[in-house]
Amino acid sequence: MSEHFDCLIVGAGYAGSVAARELAERGRLRVLVLERRDHIGGNAYDCLDESGILIHRYGPHIFHTSDQRVYSYLSRFTQWRDYQHRVLANVYGRYMPVPFNLSSLHMAFPGEKGTRLEEKLLSAYGEGARVTILSLREASDPEIREVADYVYEHVFVHYTMKQWGQTPEEIDPATTARVPVLLSRDDRYFQDPYQGMPLEGYTAMFRRMLDHPGITVELGTDARDRLSLEGGTILLDGAPFSGPVIFTGEVDELFAFRYGRLPYRTLDFVSETLPVDQYQPAATVNYTVDQPYTRITEYKQLTGQVFPGRTSIMKEFSRAYTGAAGEIPYYAVISPENNALYSRYEALAATFPRLHLLGRLAEYKYYNMDAIVARALALCDRLLEEQERIL
Description:
The chain has helices spanning 14-25, 68-75, 102-108, 112-125, 133-137, 142-164, 173-176, 202-210, 251-254, 299-303, 336-349, 360-363, 369-390, and strands at 7-10, 31-34, 46-48, 54-56, 63-65, 80-81, 87-91, 94-98, 130-132, 180-182, 194-198, 215-218, 227-230, 233-236, 239-240, 245-247, 264-274, 284-287, 295-298, 311-320, 331-332, 355-357. It is of the alpha+beta class.
């Protein structure tokens, strides 16, 4: 089969689908996409639940970007529903905007004290600044540290321990930096200029992206049964494959865990359909001080669907990934030790010149959706430039 294709892509999520479309369309290559799951779209896959409400099977995905190229590219395959994501923290039954901002500050410290604290924060960091919680804890002003202690205890520490199974001191600073204090009254979770939800859903967008005569998608196909890497040579169905191979899955699995497993966090989801019009005051509510789950998402508020008298919610539980059947690795556990282990796999992959690692799992990093699209476009730019030089 290998001689019929110019390029092999493993995975039909964002990374694989964007790369497949680019190489088939711009490069006029014949692209084979192997996807282990029974659907396209990766973790962004959405579908109707039993009640007819569109849900995201693998947790909520909200598109946002400041990259005009990424936004324009995806807009070829979908129209957008204008949606500005807002998240609330349930702090002992009181709803507080997240990220913690100036509105949250006045809820936590009402009256004159809140006004004084606002003035101090703006003076120290500037209006609109995004300051990490751990940075605030290191401030010299005792009142700023008091704010930091409040945020730390009521918004950050318990949520982080549930999410990562670690103390905050054990978390990589790059991960911690994703939980900011925003010195503004802008209560949107993201401030990017381009935000929204695909009007017909993510799956419809991916279906259009992969709808090209040069793309063949095989679902329910484990690439490990078709692909082998031996002595610098890539074999597809037992025959040498000389075209580019873009791999978007777990890199340790690709090499049969030769150096051991890379640690990840996985998620368990509990979905419910309830006989109410609306369950909670925002699409996403984080449970930052109690409950075993990290958050609840109400999907009607994301999609804008109208279903009087019923709504679907999803609770998320985070735990360590073990590699057991049915588990999905969602988040790389970033640490010097784990990065060193990944580097060994990265060096091994580099011994196969036509093998390209792309995406969260293959690169062992956290990427937002727009960053994955940008990286896929950049990789294809390089591959197509190489093709032009050869020709």
